[in-house]
Amino acid sequence: MVSEPRIVGPAFYARHGKSLSDWWNVLHPPYTIWHLSYAVIGAALAPDLSWGALGATILAFFLAVGVSAHALDELHGRPLRTQISGRTLRVAAGSALLGAIALGVVGVVRGGYALVVLIPIGTVLVLAYNLELRGGRLHNDLAFALSWGGFPVVVGYAAQQPPFDLARLACVALAALAAIALAHAQRQLSTPARHLRRRAADVLAEVRYADGSRSRLVREDLLAPLEGGLKALSWAMPLLASSLALAHLG
User: Fold this and answer.
1) Predicted TM-score (pTM) above 0.90
2) I need a labelling partner for 66 at 20 to 30 A (CA). Which of 26, 45, 55, 211 fits?
């Protein structure tokens, strides 16, 4: 007898039930905090850390990535199966993106002139990636790693209005490359996990060992190492970013 396929949630952190659960799922808390950590790491590389500028940077990225980008993503095919109306998602995406831009403009007025270039780049990245403009040419692993990995590091540093220093710029470049690599690793783990959760009706597999024994694998067996790595990294990055920022208190 073939058992009925088990229904699983769209993500390991997904909640079910009330409307607040839908918004929790849209915000992708583990991933959002993970990507905000890159901005904190960039800011921590500045010689003097402005906590006000850091707070504004974190809020701007939360609005742009956590709210706007994820709301646009949910509009495209409803991957999280939420009941939030399309109009509500569009309003949330637009207002959050405008809020992020406004915070960036404040940063420019306060002397963060590099943000004049970075603000429009970030706006284009949010819209082009999540709306899959131009046939989805920017909706790929490389664009994801550059947009949500390396870019926040650069913006986090620039928002601190640091003096020009080639050695520190080299450190920022290396940190951005590390963030790009980590974001790429995230994508390599999350893509097959999403397919298993959101697209696969069921999984039936068998491992045959050299000694002739066999064991059966189900969907949970395949998800465990993928999501185990994602969970560990989603804790590791905020902890690392926090330690680098708190080092400036000394």
Assistant:
1) yes
2) 45
